[in-house]
Amino acid sequence: MMDPRWRPTVNEREFIEQALQSDLRVDGRRPFDFRKLKIAFGREDGSAEVELGETRVMGYVTAQLVQPYKDRPNEGTLAIFTEFSPMADPAFEPGRPGEAAIELGRVIDRGLRESRAVDMESLCVVAGKHVWSVRVDLHILDNEGNLIDAANIAALAALSTFRRPECTVGGDDGQQVTVHDSEVRDPLPLTIHHLPIAVTFAYFGDGNVMVIDPTYKEEAVMGGRMTATINSNGDVCAIQKAGGEGVMSSVIMQCLRIASVKAADITSKIKREVDDYTTEKALQKVKRTPALVAKKVNVPDVTMEESTHSALENQASKAPNDGQQIIKDPPAIPNDGKHEDTKPMLTESNPEVKSVLNSGTAGESDEVKESRSPKSLIDAVKPKHRRKKKQHGNS
Questions:
Q1: pLDDT tens digit string along 168-199?
Q2: 248: how many CB neighbours lie within 10 A of its CB?
Q3: Do residues 50 and 147 make contact, with C-beta atoms less than 8 angstroms apart?
Q4: CB-based contacts of 350, cutoff 8 Å, min separation 6
Q5: From 38's CA, which of 58, 283, 302, 338 has a CA 20 to 30 Å away?
């Protein structure tokens, strides 16, 4: 079966090689320039997506309690798994991992586990019985070259934001493990001593021309490749050489010096993004309440007394501007026949007014009118039985 991966023509190969001899690259970069790096974190802890140019890799970290190895009873485990999706590259086939997936997992695992970047002893719960097994899943979303460096950064970013559940040991025999929920106790981060950064070099021609962070087309033309895993302190954690092109020792030493500088820059980038993510998560946990600021409002003091009816009527007659509705007493309407159309409206809304209007005569005395109509707004809103008692008392 023919490999569906892009194969350069003779003219394309010569163009790329001649451009590299003139310190020029197809995408316009210099030989030792990285593509633009972006790191994004998911909603859950331990999830990170890295974009290196157009290469995209997602890392996801999980953990579970397992029984440790017999030769290391007080240490946890760390495993790297890779998944190559056919949507990322037509050359990737679904099912069992191919040679490229196995090689990618081994290079990253060697740089992380062999350099003791993660403290394995801190993952021990009960020596010889229960330890934490940390698993890193790397999903290739888009292959545009240099998958090793992008997958390595995704694994480090996911491990830096991962939080494992806190657990306590108790019981009668002191061997019972209780795993606490994240809402009961805050999860604990992993203890990471340093960040081993993978920097990949591609060699062309007789090995005299080299570039950093090769693209998809450059990988199809290169004669050899070397990946150096170095931390920000300049310590060499691992070196992996692939391809049949030979490289001189002086060129390798030059690559290591360049890799140490690039590793320091990428390490600062990862730490800065992780700090921003941690700060944002901490702010989300804090329950915020709106601040109550006292404002000085010049409002004259109003004495509300039941005996002072005029003050209450003045306050009730002032309609507020915020749309609140205040029910007032209806104005007195003379019984001259000109306001017949307004009479039914008043009688429907207030049956007591209807009885007063129907029974009212021009010859009534002032005392009878005063006993039948409420004196003020307070009397109008009083219950009916109290009002009737007051009328009987006045009579």
A1: 888 777 778 888 888 888 889 999 999 999 99
A2: 11
A3: no
A4: 330
A5: 283
